[in-house]
Design goal:
nine-stranded mixed β-sheet, 23% strand, six-stranded mixed β-sheet, 446 residues, Rossmann fold
């Protein structure tokens, strides 16, 4: 009997899963509640894959043997609950694709820093000549790459909690957990414990042959580790504590220790600066040493890495003011790192869709560094309630053009204009990328 694979969602991961399913000879159907983008619709047409858009037809979905779900669809949706009650398997695109690939995986998750760490790790491995691909929550989907017979020996995967929630048999050869801070709690019944368990799925199925790299300075991680028996070899990294195996930073020198061998690099040599990037560098550096890449090659890659668009990205200097695009900061902890790394007075642009934010951890930094807050969102009440009396000047704006103009007039030579929203973007923008691009365009038009 021909296996029927139904894919819910026709974005990059959904279309990738559909292409792989079709290639494997399965009866493939794609269903998307929204309108499918033209480029993805063309791909489905060209591949002869049947699909529907702007609806979910139960008679075409409930006859599935397996459902591959977009990470954006919450597990509590009535259709998914009904599918599970019928005993139909529901998996993520990563889980589905990995079943048909012989590759090994470096898997990176965390509330913050995972994109930079993923790209930095990929940069180091690729420069060292390793047959490595990049997938997950970034770039082309894993399923697409497996379908295109572009299967690699290794993949570096950036994994969100939503992707991990749909992964069951998958095993990470090297798992990295950067940090766990409150984020997406609306998807986890506003319970931090549920979110922590989701992040720790990155080490499920690991054996003694595998490696687990994690931040020793993160209280949520260390508390959870006390409750667990970890099979994999452990490599913690820290800005505070010297470790026997792993990495730590002391007096602006990062030391990486793997198998009794020590490698060091000075933070001033790194292309990416700031405390958060020390963590990213330590995690990627441990991976590089596990691969036994030569130390000069690792240093060269660390020095040449250019960073990530929309993550503390320098845009322009206008009238002596630096404009920084940190649109990827969609939670409070990301913004904490951004403000912590600022060396001048800051005009801070923030706001958007609040995900259950607790702004208390930003109070001290905001009081020390921020001279003006520009609230850019449909509903700014929470920002206003928290920062009135902490930040001298607070302005509300309804568009990016208005926000950038206000920042320009409020700023002086030597100030930094920082877009670091601490919120999701969906009230005024399609995505954090759309928000970041608009910011850059408005700055260039000053």
């Amino acid at each position: 009997m021909n296996k029927r694979v139904v894919i819910l969602g026709a974005g990059e991961s959904g279309v990738g899963a559909a292409l792989l399913s079709k290639k494997l000879g399965f009866d493939t159907f794609v269903s998307d509640l929204s309108e499918i983008k033209d480029n993805f619709r063309r791909e489905l047409d060209d591949a002869g894959i049947s699909y529907e858009e702007k609806k979910h037809s139960e008679e075409l979905i409930f006859n599935a043997d397996i459902v591959v779900k977009s990470p954006g669809i919450p597990d509590k949706v009535a259709m998914l609950v009904a599918l599970r009650e019928k005993g139909i398997e529901i998996v993520s695109e990563i889980e589905f694709a990995a079943r048909y690939s012989k590759a090994k995986y470096v898997c990176i998750t965390g509330s913050n820093g995972k994109t930079t760490t993923t790209l930095l790790t990929y940069h180091i491995l690729k420069n060292a000549g390793i047959n490595v691909g990049l997938a997950g929550n970034i770039g082309q989907s894993l399923a697409r790459q497996v379908a295109e017979a572009d299967d690699k020996e290794w993949y570096v995967l950036e994994l969100s909690s939503f992707q991990l929630d749909g992964m069951y048999q998958f095993r990470a050869d090297i798992a990295i957990l950067m940090n766990i801070t409150p984020d997406h709690l609306d998807r986890y019944e506003y319970k931090m414990e549920n979110y922590i368990q989701s992040k720790f799925r990155v080490i499920q199925n690991q054996t003694e042959e595998d490696a687990f790299i994690y931040c020793l300075d993160d209280e949520n991680i260390t508390k959870e580790l006390e409750r667990r028996e970890i099979k994999a070899r452990q490599y913690p990294f820290s800005n505070v504590t010297e470790v026997r195996a792993g990495a730590f930073c002391h007096n602006d020198e990062i030391q990486i220790k793997v198998k009794e061998d020590v490698m060091s690099v000075f933070t001033e040599q790194l292309a990416i600066q700031g405390q958060h990037n020390r963590y990213n560098t330590m995690a990627a550096g441990i991976v590089a040493r596990l691969f036994q890449i030569r130390k000069p090659a690792i240093r060269e890659s660390l020095i040449s890495f250019k960073g990530v668009e929309h993550r503390l990205e320098r845009v322009l200097s206008v009238r002596g003011m630096e404009f920084i695009n940190d649109s990827k900061a969609t939670n409070v902890n990301s913004t904490w790192y951004a403000l912590e790394s600022m060396k001048t007075d800051v005009i801070w642009i923030a706001g958007g869709v609040d995900k259950g934010n607790d702004y208390s951890e930003l109070m001290q930094l905001a009081g020390q560094k921020v001279k003006a807050l520009i609230c850019l969102g449909v509903d700014n009440k929470k920002l206003l309630d928290n920062f009135q009396g902490v930040i001298p000047t607070i302005v509300e704006c309804g568009s990016m053009h208005e926000a950038v103009k206000s920042a320009y007039y409020l700023g002086e030579k030597g100030d930094t204009i920082l877009l670091s929203p601490a919120c999701a973007s969906f009230d005024l923008f399609d995505s954090y990328e759309h928000r970041g691009r608009e910011f850059k365009e408005c700055v260039r038009n000053l």
